[in-house]
Amino acid sequence: MTPENTTPRSDRLHTAINPSDMHRFGGKTVLVTGSTRGIGEGIARRFADEDANVVVTGRSSADGQAVADDIQNCGATATFIEADLADIEPIERLVTRTVNQFGSIDVLVNNAAAWTHGPFLDRTVDDWETVINVSLRAPWLLSKHAIDSMPAGGSIVNISSVHSMASDPQRFPYNVAKAGLNGMTRSMAADLGPLNITVNAILPGPVQIKDDPGDDPLLEHRLEGLPADRYGRPADIAGMTAFLASKEARFVTGASIPVDGGWTACLHDDPDVYGTRHSVD
User: Fold this and answer.
1) Is 174 a catalytic residue?
2) Catalytic residue among 174, 188, 192, 240
3) pTM (2 d.p.)
4) How far apart are CA 98 and CA 26, in angstroms?
5) Which of 6, 10, 45, 275 is deepest in the core (most CB within 10 A)?
6) Does an H or E element contain 102, and which?
7) Burial degree of 37 (CB within 10 A; 0-12, 13-18, 19+)
8) Does domain 22-274 have CATH number 1.10.10.10?
9) How is the chain split into domains, by residue range?
């Protein structure tokens, strides 16, 4: 009989389901935006497990430093650089400080996003600018500045969303920014291919960030009908990110890949999401 996994549930959120002994990123520097918690934290920890020099970044100094310190305590190399990607100057400073410390940026993971959304008719210009600046403008400018310090064989991975393909009601303008990120991924892949740099996007589905999914109202209605029969975990997104940044994926570029437990493969008509349907004669 296989013994039960005794790892605490919170730890399993950030640990690969089948831990690997590969060390593909030794000596490489990986910058992960929005990595003070959630999916970004899981991605940062995965690259640290594979021997990368990891730059953790976000707006919260306390959370970010805690992640970086914990990675270092596990024997890997990490540093925290505070940056609010809603503004332009911190973007340039983030790239400069990363290069000054490590000499290059081999992998850039554009994960940070603004989660402001709601009914289309209720959104404001401020809502639009907040979401677009963080979720779309920042990945563009970060990539643009990082390229000068990214050697051949480098990779950019943009963390998009299944909402870029098929969205629930009241996701505007988040779904607009993520659709734009998919388009930007294709443009970047086409233009940066001659530099031997790959660019891909990952489209996460419902991902469990907290220990108890019942604490997250965005997940309450989603498990029924999800082919994988479980929520995603940061480790699921992190595994695909590491693959796309690795040598094994050098022939993959310009792709937008759902990592969603089959969510986008299905038609959903959940009344908790869409409300009661009425036929029209």
Assistant:
1) yes
2) 174
3) 0.87
4) 17
5) 45
6) helix 89-102
7) middle
8) no
9) 22-274
